[in-house]
Fold this protein.
Amino acid sequence: MKPFSWRFIRMWQRNRDVFLRLWHAEAPGFVAEPILVLLAMGLGLGAYVGLVDGQRYIEFIAPGIIASYAMFSASFECTYGSFWRMEHQRTYDAIIATPLSVEDVIAGEIFWGATRSLMTGSVILAVAAAFQLVHSPWALLMPILSFLSGIMFSSIAILFTSLVPSFYSFNYYFTLFITPMFFFSGVFFPLSSFPEILQTLSWILPLTPVVHLARALFWGEFHLNLLVALVIIIVLTILFFSISLVTMRRRLTV
């Protein structure tokens, strides 16, 4: 594996500039949908659900919605978006003909995916604060958590992108990997409500530690297993980031 250089910021800037030209077409989907889910589930279903872990249902799901849609933002950007730039626009081929290496390009893609997570998480956090769902100043760290989890999910998405033959393959990624995390990582229900085997298996899912940290930041309640959650995120980020650089170099140069 070759290291990436500071030039990765040029790839990030390229994606930023494209986004700033097209934001009015891209942003509503990643902003409106999580807000609608938060309100529909929190106020609609919440009217039939009592307190969950001592919280109103909408208060319980708010941090999970931020964590999960930060995941969705990074995943969509670094699957469909990256594949389109790689195979159809041939953007990668053009850029690696410059002083940027393959590693610089992929690192720029990953950090741009993380930036999209940060933007999505920040907007939903602002909405949650407007509805008085935030109960701790520690929630101000949510954008940082969104960015960190965005690096992790962008790395996982880029790894998958480096292996697939076509757009249609992403159906497997979202149906068999992303969607199960959305439902089994503690976003909508406490993990304690699942059978013991599912509680254990849920910690295999990368979204689970992110949801736990997000909920702790919302309420300012910290305990030792949150350190374990943070370590899991960091280890998975380093692992998948490193592997994605290797597999994408192989995809683009062999």
User: Anything to note?
Assistant: Residues 8-44 form the longest helix (37 residues). The chain has a mean pLDDT of 91.
